[in-house]
Amino acid sequence: MRSPRGDEAGSILPLAIGYAVLAIALIVVCADATALHLAQKRLDALAASAALAAADGFALSVEGGAVRARLDDARVAEQAAALLAATGDDTALVSAETPDGVSARVTVATVWHPPIVSIVVPGGIPLEATATSRTGLE
């Protein structure tokens, strides 16, 4: 006569392997999602820094007896590009402009690659960030 335990020997092994694979996939996805979030936050900070540097590239002019700080698109782009060149990474300057002559709007972009390559997380996700900064002088 067979024992009831003999029929079920080893039946827990596929379940344990399945849970282990699921746990590893979850860890990989969470690590990649965290890396993506940090990359976007870094790009946001870089865009804000470039906009701040671009807003400091003003030229003073006298209009009607009052001194005004004015920005132009060429100077904004020059200042933003100089800051991005100093970082030394592969971030690209998409646009740098002054919409109203007193604020600088800078858009930067890069491509994010996951630190842990897997079949569930695609590689090469484009990221973009835009920031605006105003001159301190009116």
Total strand count, please? 5
User: Judging from the principal axes of the Cα atoms, what is the shape?
Assistant: rod-shaped
* Widest β-sheet, arrangement of strands: 3-4-5
Oligomerization status of the protein chains: single chain
Helix content: 40-55%
Q: Pick out the low-confidence regions.
A: none
Classify the secondary structure makeup into a structural class: alpha+beta
Beta-strand content bin: 25-35%
| Overall average residue pLDDT | 88
Radius of gyration: 27 Å
- Measured between the Cα atoms of the first and last residue, the distance is 96 Å
Total number of helices: 2
The major β-sheet equals: 3 strands, antiparallel
The succession of helices and strands, N to C, reads HEEHEEE
Would you write up a description of this structure?
The protein has 138 residues and is α+β, with helices and mostly antiparallel strands. The protein is 43% helix and 26% strand. The chain has helices at residues 12-55, 73-87; strands spanning 59-63, 66-70, 92-97, 103-112, 125-134. The strands form 2 sheets. A 3-stranded antiparallel sheet has the order 3-4-5. A hairpin with a 2-residue loop joins strand 1 and strand 2 (66-70). Helix 1 (12-55) crosses helix 2. The longest helix is centred in the first third of the chain and has 44 residues, at 12-55. It is rod-shaped and about 100 Å long. Keywords: Membrane, Transmembrane, Transmembrane helix. The chain crosses the membrane at residues 12-36.
